[in-house]
Amino acid sequence: MALEPGGILHIAHLARLHLLEDDAERYAGELSAILAFIEQMNAVDTGGVTPMAHPFEMTQPLRADIVTEQDRREEYQANAPAVRDGLYVVPKVIE
Amino acid sequence: MMWEAVVGLEIHAQLATRSKIFSGAPAAAGAEPNRQACAIDLALPGVLPVLNAEVLRMAVMFGLATNAEIASRSVFARKNYFYPDLPKGYQISQYELPVVKRGVVEIALDDGPTKRIGIARAHLEEDAGKSVHDAFPGETGVDLNRAGVPLLEIVSEPDMNSAGEAMAYMRTIHSLVRYLGICDGNMEAGSFRCDANVSVRRSGETALGTRTEIKNLNSFRFVGRAITYEIERQIETLAGNGTVVQETRLYDAVADETRAMRDKEEANDYRYFPDPDLLPVELSPEYIERIRAELPELPDVKRQRFRSEYALGENDARRLTAIREIADYFEAVANASRQPRLAANWVTGDLAAALHRANIEITHSPVGPEELATLIVRIADGTLSGKMAKEVFESVWRREGDPDSVIAKRGLVQISNPAAIEDFVDQIIAAHPEQVEQFRTGKEKVFGFFVGQVMKLTRGQANPEQVNQALRRKL
Lengths: 95, 475
Fold this sequence. Notes:
heterodimer, A: mainly alpha, Histone, subunit A, two-stranded antiparallel sheet, B: alpha+beta, Arc Repressor Mutant, subunit A, 3 domains, 9-stranded mixed sheet, 3-stranded antiparallel sheet, elongated
């Protein structure tokens, strides 16, 4: 599957990455090469193989339903670009 | 032309945990903005999610209660989209391998019959934060307290064919999650809400029509009205040779209509993939069986038991079992009074009406189950007439005392002694020769006058039935 520069710009927009139109051409080539490599792997019949989620035999560790976090709003908000009345503030989002 | 509507619901039930699904921040509502948003909820660099064991237990309970398949292996995925109240830029959800698949519930329709509604899947996910658009001009405020609160998204099959069926299904799920204790069901606070998928087709067709999705319905009434409106709108469109556009719509309760929502740009391109921060969840048969053993008695089973154990009709049994707390209250009254019939009448009648008027939950009823049971015993043993019982109930409701002390204080004891009643009847007959004459010459209406006079004489305490009988004999 080959990617077109238009598709690259679309994906970049979804990820909120700023790409120049000129770069799109180059990335289209590079990403298409990666996809071609993955297609080679796709050709192998893996029907009976369970996908490996982790190199070790591990399943999801769980935590008990206990509140362990303290309120550290002031510290967290000290790093935010804009804060008002306890809210993080961003440019207007139009619904 | 006959049309058939096809409706499916996606219900979001907020799970009643103490902490969030992937972090140890509190999940409770009502805190000041961002006081309950920790580093994980904020997606600060280097943090990792750790799954809350309780959400799994709750999802499995729901699956078992709906006779669903519980996946021995389920996987969390990232649903990617850009929005300020979603700090990571993706929502952790389950996509290809949800924890619960292929369940079923039975709903009761208004006219009596029941219908089975399939549940395609139920999966775990985290809620997003809340955007505040009207606080500051030109800016949006973001409160992330809700980010990471656990949700169970319950996706029905498109098995419903009317707004009424959709409402009955939503009520059934609402009742179920509250029975299970996995969701508080508070719709005003948004902890139980749903999206409705609606399409219509010509009767007899098997292919589905183009559907629209109505977002964020947070009351039973709105679900009913929004779906009713949308079905009519689609039929009108198709009947006029128009086409229904697949889109997301919002229900406007004030105008009572649905309107196309301007989609978040490319909102449907979510690029799901398995979340590499989380391993697959594996559930052993032993774990699942342990949870099965802990399930409470469910509404359907309780309803059957109420019918056989307390000899109740289907309607009473259904009304009494819809909400677990009401069922518990009724059982306490029925067992303490040994009068299930009267208990059912009072709980669904006077008590329900009083609670409704005062807007009080049954768990906070000023008249407790023991008190209502005492009152009912006093009716059954003939101490109180129905009318006197209502008076005592009102009085206990106002906390003027328990039933027996109210009865004593007001001297409210029904006179059921036949000799005493005959004596009163004789007095009244003797005092009103003119009316006696009228009655004897065929004026049946005067009978009521005599009953009234006896009741007045006894300050309403004479047993009305015995008064009737004595008057009939003597006149």
